[in-house]
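Budget justification note: compute hours in this period were largely spent on complex prediction jobs such as the one shown. Inputs:
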Amino acid sequence: MMKIEITSMKKSIILLLLMSCFSCSSPSSNIDNNVDSNSHAQTQASLYQEIGGKPALDNIIDNLINIIGQDDVVFAHFAQSNVTRFKDELTIFLCHLADGPCQYQGDSMEDIHQGMYITKNEFNHFVELFIEAMDASGISYPIQNQLLARLAPLRRTIIKM
Ligand code: HEM
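Corresponding output:
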């Protein structure tokens, strides 16, 4: 019973994020006294730190790639892709997006996905797979939602059909 309530609540939040392409400035609300050695007098944890840093992000992306590999809806898009490159670029992109110590200097999401003719359904499904990957990595729902909120504005640049 409890699991059903949590699942449906999570689905509502995800739907809300997917339906609205608002520009989010991603609040990081938790105060963390563990100062990142690369930052100057930082008192607030970045989303990257809250996710669990590089080990957690690597784990999420490994899970995502495994899940995509067994998925009937989006796998066809990835069938000819260079998985190593996808993994490396996605890692840097998400690290940057979560205010981690990375600078994504690749092409824009619009340029990369142009010509793939990604549908709304495929995009929404990809987000569900991403959530599965975060679940499997043990990322808490509040942290998942913060990362999803930063991905939501990309929706309109990636969907072309
Ligand atoms: C918020 C959602 C998404 C993000 C943040 C994202 C991000 C990225 C990044 C960073 C890359 C690597 C680019 C490079 O190689 O330089 C990439 C590649 C790719 N993306 Fe996405 N993507 C998203 C959604 C999707 C969706 C929904 C699909 C298809 C259903 C998709 C299909 C692909 C494919 C096939 C490639 C590999 C292109 C190649 O062969 O090199 N992406 N994406």
